[in-house]
Amino acid sequence: QVQLVQSGVEVKKPGATVKVSCKTSGYTFTDYGISWVRQAPGQGLEWVGWINPNNGNTDYAQIVQGRVTMTTDASTSTAYMELTSLTSDDTAVYYCARDVPPVWGSDSWGQGTLVTVSA
Amino acid sequence: DIQMTQSPSSLSASVGDRVTITCRASQTIDNYLNWYLRKPGRAPKLLISAVSSLQTGVPSRFSGSGSGTDFTLTITFLQPEDFATYYCQQSYATPYTFGQGTKLEIK
To answer: Which residues pair with B70 in a beta bridge?
Structure first.
């Protein structure tokens, strides 16, 4: 079955960089987009960005534009999200999710990765 | 960015009740509207995509409707496992914005 397994908890200091991985299985990796969504404590869901594993095209939310890089490795069916210049506002659980046509809802999700930014 | 406004933000209901959650987009989004269920400590679960298309395995007591800018999620005959937070999301244009969520609580 379709599975997305994310890397573990991260604790970072302000200004640092974090890279979260999302290893997929159970489907053809390049056939579906991967979105990244986060949820800060007490807040709602926030879309961070999207990558097309077939061609590497990306689209990022303005809130992280210039600080985020999403990549994929088709040889391992793994997606990555790197976020630089971390602040306390980036403290959140980060999810990767598979986007499916025709309207690109996210039908399968990783378990989430807690990223805590604290001095 | 397209703004998604959900109402109500919270809702109390009893097992067996029928509830409706609404979602309004700040501009037309055709049928690019998805509904998710979120339980504490769990990843979101896609319930409905393309306004009204139920995902495999989602009970038929869930239904979606609407067009253009106004959409609804209806749950008939509420079950104990339905008490959670629900989010709408537009996937018409990036950023794929979410509504602020509706917390459905047991009365």
So the answer is: B24, B67
